[in-house]
Amino acid sequence: MVLRAEHYFHFDVGARTKLEDAMPRNANKLWTDQDETRLRELAASGASLVRATAALRRSSSSVKRKALDLGLAFRGVKQVRADLRAAGVLDGA
To answer: Which DSSP symbol is given to 90?
Structure first.
């Protein structure tokens, strides 16, 4: 089955598209002290970059750039999954 744009979007006037729902809400907004504090907390808790982008509602490139500026690092999704499997929280599939 070939997926086309019409599978992802509906064009009712005033309706939001799935793409709009997926877009970060903080796009083109400056980082606040509260945002930076939350980013530091997420990095310290061992969150993945994907989790941080969702929590902050920002793009992954924005979060990566700010994390580098602040000297923070995030674990990759593969490492998070491996840790969850080792803890027995996630199946081996």
So the answer is: S
> For each successive 10 residues of the chain (93 residues), what is the average pLDDT?
47 50 67 96 90 92 94 84 85 67
Locate tokens 């930076």: which residue?
A: 36
- Radius of gyration of the chain measured on its C-alpha atoms: 17
Range of the domain at 40: 5-86
Number of domains in the chain: 1
* Tokens matching residue 15: 């309706």
The CB density around residue 39, as the number of other CB atoms within 10 Å, is: 23
CA distances 52 to 3, 11, 21, 61, 66, Å, are: 29, 31, 17, 11, 11
DSSP 17: P
H-state helical runs in 4-76: 5-8, 18-22, 33-44, 49-56, 60-70
Separation CA 65–CA 67 (nearest Å): 5
